[in-house]
Amino acid sequence: MAEELLKDDATKISGHLTWSLLAVAFLASFGSSMLYGFNLAVVNSPAEYIKAFYNETLTERHHWTPDEHFLTILYSLTVSVFAIGGMTGALLVGRLVTKYGRKGTLVRATMLVFIGGSLMGFSRWFRNPFMIIAGRFITGVHSGISLSVVPMYLGEIAPKNLRGFLGLVPSIHICLGVFIAQVLGLSELLGK
């Protein structure tokens, strides 16, 4: 009797990888995990250019030339606020998933990327260094939400025998994002 139940369970466990399942796994990871890896590493190469932008804008707006120590603190805040945003986003996941579901949370969190990216992208036009810091915080919130929700979502939609494989897809995209940020951060490409 027990052997028959085990055989029945074994047939229910097996599933195959379909193109739609693979596409969902790669798109969900690409839009979240790769962005996390990219944003984690992207600010390292252009550090001197970011500090110079902060120096220019603070001098123009406030008629005050900050010293190197203050610029280092401001740059350190720019780098570390991403992690603070990530922690905030991770703490919000429980409520968001309960209210919107896993897929709904992922779709709604995508808006944060566009808001954060717009703040950082238009900071040079508005000559406001604090838009970069706010944009990194909002992008960090998105990363904290996504890094928690994407594995939950992929585990929910995958057959049992493919959960391990699909659980690795976000990790691969994190590494890919760090790699892309390092390559694009070369001074010969976009490091300026």
From TrEMBL:
It comes from the Eukaryota. Gene3D superfamilies: MFS general substrate transporter like domains. InterPro entries: GLUT, MFS_dom, MFS_sugar_transport-like, MFS_trans_sf, Sugar/inositol_transpt, Sugar_transporter_CS. Its main location: membrane. It is found in: Membrane. The keyword Heme does not apply. The chain crosses the membrane at residues 17-38, 73-94, 106-126, 132-153, 165-186. This is Major facilitator superfamily (MFS) profile domain-containing protein. It comes from Characodon lateralis.
